[in-house]
Amino acid sequence: MIDNRMPIFEALKSKEKAISVIGLGYVGLPLALEFARTFRVVGFDISPERVALMQKGEDPSRELDPSAFENCDIAFTSNPEDLKKAHFHIVAVPTPIDIHKVPNLNPVLKASHSVGKALKNGDYVIFESTVYPGCTEEDCVPILEQQSGLVMGQDFKVGYSPERINPGDKERTITTILKIVSGCDDESLDEIAKTYGAIITAGIYKASSIKVAEAAKVIENTQRDLNISLMNELAMIFDRMGIDTQEVLKAAGTKWNFIKLQPGLVGGHCIGVDPYYLIHKSMALGFDPQVINSGRRINDLMPAFVAKKLTQLLISKGKYPQHTRVLVMGITFKENVSDIRNSKVADLITELNLFAIRTDILDPYADPQEVKKEYGFDIVSEPGGQYDAIVVAVNHDAFKKYDIKALKSLMNDDPVLVDIKALYDRKEMEKEMTYWRL
After folding, report:
1. CA distances for 138 relative to 112, 135, 144, 166, 220, angstroms
2. Residue 121 and residue 123: Cα distance in Å, rounded?
3. Is 286 exposed, middle or buried (0-12, 13-18, 19+ CB in 10 A)?
4. How far apart are CA 200 and CA 35, in angstroms?
5. Tens of pLDDT, residues 111-143
6. Is the dihedral of CA 281, 287, 292, 295 positive or negative?
7. Is 72 a catalytic residue?
8. Of residues 135, 140, 184, 270, which has the active-site annotation?
9. Within a 13 Å sphere around the CA of 357, how many CA atoms are in the beta-carbon half?
10. Is beta strand 88-91 parallel, antiparallel or unpaired with respect to 124-127?
11. Shortest CA distance to 284 belongs to which of 133, 426, 422, 390?
12. More confident site: 34 or 170
């Protein structure tokens, strides 16, 4: 039975009990460190190499400065036995998709096994990993019960609090983003809200149920995915019409209720992944979500669309693909981060290689070894020059030094610039080279 001698929040606040955070990536590490400024924390990750770096005050993801580790009551470990020292467990592991676009729940299910083996009477388990509605109670709780021999609600409590970390954003940090929380009953909801409320200055929103909180998270990125897919489809239409999409969006944006979004490559571990979790659950219930599927198809088509357009531009200049060299600037999924997961720039490079185009990749933020392991591509430390085309795929701050003069110095005669992020002035660029943008 639940131990009611002291509410879990009070026990955590007095440091009689500890919080564990399972999965110390972009979501888990900043969360663990923030909690460790107020509570006693066990930070768990399955990678001993990552744990060793964090024990030295280094963020393996290169998102946090060493100062973020200061004044934190936290013990980093890769030993699952250490989870038994904690009583409030937060699961923040990745939830990717496989090559068939099917949700890969292995990380969160394995984490549930580990936590289940460490569960004690009175413990709490909160999931932050993005899942489809129902996953926490239907897939994870049975594992917790099986591994612990305890009963949810009777012996331990469960909740769900969707992560809202925005990698690379130095303004909207974890404490300044409104936090959704949910629990398996009123008591757990209140205790979970108090615990998160101790570190979140932006406030706490109490969802009516765990499923509502799960659904809220998955539709946040699904909505954004669909809106961007409309911009991408418009970009394809306007390209056929010979109209500059950016000029159209600029004009339309003068209307007060026009939603200002940009076309682009939709990758990463959120917007390009989360809709597939909702699609998966919907299909399992016998409903084909046509709008969501359509948006996903459009966004997944964009790397091939850009590659084909560049190839056509090169051929129109008498430059045959197999004899051309292209510099691709950026391979991470967004600007000023090192994360290469689900990078659509990698898909673009693959498409260019299918046209026999030789590519060099420049990205000072990406880890060359990770890129090689994940995609088989090599990264150059400096551009080699004499390129037939340059693709500016990611708007890293480090690329801002590349003005028209710098770009042209890297190109040969009659070059092409593909400006995916629309960073440059079209009229100025067209004076010096063939310029194309989404």
Report:
1. 12, 5, 11, 28, 22
2. 6
3. exposed
4. 10
5. 999 999 999 999 999 999 999 999 999 999 999
6. positive
7. no
8. 270
9. 30
10. parallel
11. 133
12. 34
Over residues 250-261, the mean pLDDT reads 95
Whether pLDDT at 234 is above 70 = yes
- At 348, list the tokens: 């673009």
**Exposed/middle/buried for residue 358 (C-beta within 10 Å: 0-12, 13-18, 19+):** middle
Nearest 10 degrees: Cα torsion 411, 413, 417, 423: 60
Task: Answer yes or no: is pLDDT of 2 > 80.
Answer: no
Asked whether the beta carbons of 102 and 280 are under 8 A apart, the reply is yes
- Tokens at 21, concatenated: 């955070």
Residue with tokens 């571990």: 269
What pLDDT does 198 receive? 97
Distance CA 169, CA 94 (A): 19
pLDDT (0 to 100) of residue 383: 92
The pLDDT value given to residue 32: 97
- Asked whether 407 and 232 are in contact (CB, 8 A), the reply is no
Residue 361 in tokens: 């990749």
Residue 421 phi, psi dihedral angles, 5° rounding: -90, 5
> How far, CA to CA in Å, does 258 sit from each of 108, 252, 261?
39, 7, 9
Domain range list for the chain:
8-219, 264-437
Length of the chain: 438
Percentage with pLDDT > 70 across the chain: 98
**Which letter does DSSP use for residue 82 in this model?**
G
Question: pTM for the complete prediction?
Answer: 0.91
CATH fold match for the domains 8-219 and 264-437: yes
- In angstroms, the CA 362 to CA 345 distance is 12
The CA–CA distances, whole Å, from 406 to 115, 264, 409 equal 53, 24, 5
Asked whether the predicted pLDDT for residue 239 surpasses 70, the reply is yes
Strand, helix or coil at 156?
strand
pLDDT value at residue 6: 84
264-437 is a CATH 1.20.120.520 domain? no
pLDDT in tens, 178-195: 999 999 999 999 999 999
pLDDT of amino acid 168: 67
Q: What is the per-residue pLDDT for 408?
A: 93
- Other C-beta atoms closer than 10 Å to the C-beta of 425 total 12
CA 159, 108, 81, 30 torsion-angle sign: negative
- Closest C-alpha among 404, 265, 410, 397 to residue 327: 410
Question: Tell me, what's the pLDDT at 169?
Answer: 66
Q: What is the pLDDT of residue 268?
A: 82
Which of the listed CATH numbers 3.10.450.50, 3.40.1160.10, 3.40.47.10, 3.40.50.720 matches domain 8-219? 3.40.50.720
